[in-house]
Each structure stands twice: as C-alpha cells, then as structure tokens.
Specification:
Blueprint: H1 8-16, E1 20-25, E2 35-38, H2 40-46, H3 50-53, H4 68-79, E3 84-91, E4 97-109, E5 114-123, H5 129-145, H6 161-174, E6 182-190, H7 192-199, H8 201-218, E7 224-229, E8 232-238, H9 244-263, E9 267-269, E10 272-274, E11 277-285, H10 292-305, E12 314-316, H11 319-340, E13 345-353, E14 358-367, H12 379-388, H13 392-411, E15 420-424, H14 435-446, E16 453-458, H15 466-478, E17 482-488, H16 495-500, E18 505-508, H17 510-513, H18 521-534, E19 538-541, H19 547-555, E20 560-561, H20 572-579
Parallel strand pairs: 11-12, 14-15, 15-16, 16-17, 17-18, 18-19, 19-20
Antiparallel strand pairs: 1-2, 1-5, 3-4, 4-5, 6-8, 6-11, 7-8, 9-10, 13-14, 13-20
Length: 584
C-alpha cells in the first residue's frame, strides 16, 4: 500500500472528510512512527502544514497535559495487535491545547513487508453531537478493518495471522517471568503462483490444505499452526528445554521436522506430481524481541530474502534486517519531505565534442545534499525508492524544469546559443501519456528549444509495456526533443528495437569504455562505433578517465565523451567556473 498511490475515490473521501484522518508508519520502538499521510481536516485541527507533518513523529503534538497512561495503553494495545480507542490532550502548533478522541487500527500490506497505523480523530474540546457521530463511525471502521474476525483461515483451518499474533503475544507474556524461550518458525512456500497460473486457484487452495495437513501431523501438543500470509505458514513453538543453547537446538530440530514434512514427499496437484520448495526463518522471544509482530517480521524477512541456492533452507533471525527496514522507512519519509521541499539539487557533468575538444553540453545529475557528517545517499539508492513511492512524476518534473531554467541562463551567455543539456527520464515517466505535452509546455514557458534538451532513456525502460512506451517516445520526438539511449550495452534491448526507436545518440556504458584500449571491452566499443555510424546515430563514450581512453574513442570516430578525465559532476557555480563563464 503506497500511500502516494491511494485510489482516487478513497483519496477524495479522506480529503473531504470532516474528521481528521492520519496514516503513520507502523514502528512502535524508538524513534517510533512518522506521518506518511494526513488530510486537510488534520492540518486545520493541529495548525501544522502538511509539509511540516510528513516525516515527523506524532510526539510533536504531545505536551505537559498529555496523559501518559493513555499513551502507554495505546502502545500496549498496538503491540498486542489490537485496535485502540481513547482521548487525550494534544497541543496545536501555536501551543494551545485541545482534547481529541481518536481510534487507531494497524494495517499490514504484505507487498511492502511493513505495517502502517490508520487513525480517525475528532476534536472534542467542546463536546457536541459530533462526538457521538465519531464514536459510531470509528466503531464501524474498526469493524470493517477487522471484518476477518474469525480466528481461523477458512481454507486451511489454521489460525489466521491476527490470532496467531495474539496467541504468540499471550505466550510470550505468560512466560516472561521465567525467561522461557518461545519460538516462531515461518515457512514460505515458493513459486506457488506457477500452480495458480497453470491449474487455477482451486488447485492452489487444495495444495495449501494438503500442506497444512502435513504440518499439522508434525505438530507437538503445545504448538500452534497458522497461515500467516498467502503462501506462508507459521508455527508457534514454546521451547521445552532449559538454557538458551538447548532451546536453540530444540527450535532447529522442530524447524527441520516441519520442513521435512513438506519436502520429503511430493504433492499431487490436478493429477500432476509437484515438488514444493520451502524456506524457513526462526525468531525467538525474548532473544530477538518481546513483541509478536516484531518476531513475525524478523522470521518472515528471512524467508523472503532466502536464496534458492542456499544449502540450508532454515535461517535464524538477523537484527540487521530490522535495522535495514527501519532505515528504509526513515529514508522514505526523508525523501518524501525532500521532494515536497524541493531539496534535491542538480549537478552537471560536461559533455565534450571530440572533434573540437570543447564542452558542448552537460548532463544534469540529481543529488541529495545532506547535513555535514551524514553519509551521502547516492542516486542509485534514492531514485529507485522515489519510483517505488510514486514520486517520479513530481520529481522528474522538478528536474526537467530546473535543468531548462539553467540551460536558458547558460545559453544567454555570448557564444552559447547551441549549448544543450541532457536529462534522465525514469521508466515510470515513460508511462505517462501526457509527458510530451508537459515537457513541451515547460520549455515554452522558459523559452528554450526542445532540440537543446536531450532526454536520456535507459535500455531497461524498453523492456516492458513497449507499445505504451513507444507511443510516449514518439510524442517526445514529435515535440522536438532529441533522445539518447543511456548505458547502452548493459541491458537486454534487441538491435531491432534500437533500429526502430528514434534515438539520436547512444551512450556507450563506462563498463566497456574503462576496458579500452587493451581490455576485452575495447572490441565492444569499436563495434558500437561502427553500428552507430551505419544507423546515422552519434556515439558518446561514458566514464572516460584517461588520455588513452579518449584517444581510443577518437580513433573510432566517437563524436562525444564524458567522464572524470574532463570533470566530475559539479554544482552550477563550479561548472560555470570550470567553463570560464560568469557565475550566476
């Protein structure tokens, strides 16, 4: 559930609601949850802007009169997997207190692998009938979100995910005083979607029933079987041994027995023999945590990340996974805020014309400046995350507009009228049928020629939705933009696709250029020069770092070169200084 991609009807309902609606991340341990979505009613109630709230913690609303007992009950309920209803005094941005009544329900989206909290709130400082309407609406909301109220999975008869967590938490709490170990073995069954595609959902359901039966036959009296997700089962294993090492041995023995139950003998599906692949993860309380959701997440992450080639399909919980996921959640909030605040900036790397030795253009490269002392976050990390969060339309538009503004400033310098910039276009942007019209409108507003803006497209963008992407690319060319195929040679696009697409420039990847003049990649660089010549397409060598590499490109008639040999990516001021131009 990417809350940047809320379905339009639901987004409209939340936006227009008279009640405050809030969505936060689902982390309960420090630093705690952060806001990822708020509606207008919430900003009016708190006095904070949306930009101030996104990425911030709900603690900004707390003050001296906020009842800690209520907050402790809230945290306890959510840890146990229950919803929460309560009231407390919060504080607006201007410091004035207000009494709020609210409900919180935990939502899990399996595709992302982490939880969110969904909250409906209403100010009741001056109690009126709205309070009663809220109570009714929030109770109906909780009923809807927990409509799977049965304790067992209707297909396999195993516990469902919610009641597995409740039972696991109860066992952990009951054994806390004795420090007894409670284990959770998560079992993920791989590639069952193939069976769904080949034989249909009924065949998959029957296979899941058969798997549950085999696992059930291996259970010991104190153990419980649950179907935690679509193709994942879990077994609660109260350890019946003394000492941590004995407990670990017992848990591993039980995990091996459960795996063997489904791998020692094939299954029959629609008359066909099927071998089931399984990976298992083990998490323990109190060693790995004292909260059921935390243990479930640790165990499940191990099964998701396990490699098919692993010699041992069983893995122990790794706390670094939790830290990695926490870091990703924090990074998501930071990136959303950075895009909203336009905090990302463009650096420029010159493109050299090998016929004249002059800089004739520059590639605009996105950078994320961070406070001193913080490790830099490279575009290889934050650009895919922006695509995942659905931010590329907004971010890509900002990049294109900023690059065009800078291009106009540089073109206004004497002798610079033909200078051009290249801008990277993400695969997600190429699925926007209005992209050409939006880009053209920006160039017209800024007064730069589309021909002076090269749009760089990677081979990977051509690997799916080709008909849709081709339509957008043709629209960009019709609008006057020139196209460059970036990182050429590293993807899987066919030569026929290159011939069919209206590219004006191919950028040969630095992994080949770096092997010139004597490495194996030198032959690739030479062949691609001949190919570009026959297709009447200019060629650019990326990643040039030595004079010998530049000379090799000249030998094979490359038109352009780019790389650290000439300059690293630079800020606009540094670029102007490097080029000998006046600084803006």
């Amino acid at each position: 559930m990417k809350f940047t991609n809320i379905p339009p009807f639901l987004r409209a309902a939340i936006k227009e609601s008279d009640f405050s609606v809030v969505i936060t991340t689902g982390e309960l341990e420090p630093p705690g949850p952060v806001f990822v979505h708020v509606n207008d009613a919430f900003t009016r109630m708190t006095g904070y802007t949306r930009e101030e709230l996104l990425g911030a913690t709900p603690r900004i609303l707390q003050g001296p009169d906020t009842d800690r007992a209520v907050l402790n009950r809230l945290k306890s309920n959510l840890h146990a997997g229950d919803s929460f209803e309560g009231r407390a005094w919060n504080y607006r941005k201007d410091g004035t207190p207000y009494l709020v009544e609210w409900t919180i329900t935990r939502l899990r989206h399996d595709g992302e692998g982490h939880d969110y909290f969904f909250s409906v709130q209403q100010e009741i400082t001056d109690l009126d009938p709205a309070h009663h309407r809220l109570e009714g609406q929030t109770r109906r909301l909780n009923a809807l979100l927990n409509s799977t109220g049965a304790s067992h999975d209707p297909i396999t008869g195993a516990l469902n995910h919610q009641h597995m967590l409740l039972r696991l938490q109860r066992i952990i709490d009951e054994t806390a005083a004795s420090q007894s170990v409670t284990g959770l073995v998560s079992l993920q069954f791989r590639r069952l979607d193939r069976i769904d595609q080949a034989f249909g959902v009924e065949a998959v359901n029957q296979l899941l029933i058969d798997i549950a039966k085999r696992l059930g036959h291996r259970l010991e009296l104190s153990e419980s079987l649950a179907r935690s997700h679509e193709y994942t089962f879990a077994v609660i294993v109260p350890a019946d041994a003394d000492g941590a090492s004995d407990s670990d041995h017992h848990l591993m023995t039980r995990a091996r027995s459960l795996v063997a139950a489904v791998t020692n003998e094939d299954f029959e599906v629609a008359g066909e023999t099927v071998r089931v692949e399984v990976s298992a993860g083990i998490a323990r309380a109190p060693t790995d945590g004292r909260h059921a959701r935390e243990l479930a997440l640790l165990a499940e992450e191990l099964t998701v990340g396990a490699d098919n080639t692993d010699a041992d399909p069983i893995h122990w919980a790794d706390h670094s996974i939790k830290e990695t996921q926490r870091r990703k959640i924090e990074l998501e909030g930071d990136l959303q805020r950075a895009v909203s605040e336009k905090a990302l900036v463009l650096f420029y790397q010159p493109v050299i014309d090998l016929q004249t030795g002059e800089a004739v253009g520059a590639e605009a490269l996105l950078r994320w400046p961070l406070p001193d002392g913080e490790a830099p976050i490279g575009p290889n990390e934050f650009v895919p995350l922006a695509e995942e969060l659905g931010l590329m339309d907004e971010l890509g538009g900002q990049v294109f507009e900023d690059a065009c503004l800078q291009l106009r400033r540089w073109q206004e310098l004497p002798g610079n009228a033909a200078f051009w910039v290249s801008v990277n276009v993400a695969p997600a942007q190429l699925r926007d049928p209005d992209l050409a019209a939006r880009f053209l409108a920006i160039t017209q507003t800024i007064s730069v020629a589309p021909a002076c803006v090269k749009l760089e497209i990677t081979e990977s963008a051509l690997e799916s939705d080709l008909f849709e992407v081709t339509h957008v690319i043709n629209g960009l060319v019709a609008a006057g933009f020139s196209l460059a195929l970036d990182d050429f040679g590293t993807g899987y696009s066919s030569l026929s696709r290159l011939i069919d697409m209206p590219f004006n420039l191919i950028k040969v990847d630095k992994s080949f250029v770096s092997q010139t003049p004597d490495g194996r990649g030198a032959g690739v660089v030479a062949c691609l020069s001949q190919l570009s010549h026959h297709l009447n397409i200019d060629a650019l060598g990326e990643g040039v770092e030595t004079a010998a590499q530049e000379a090799y490109l000249r030998t094979f008639n490359y038109r352009y070169a780019q790389g650290f040999y000439y300059a690293k990516p630079m800020s606009t001021a540094d670029f102007a200084a490097w080029a000998g131009w006046p600084i803006d």
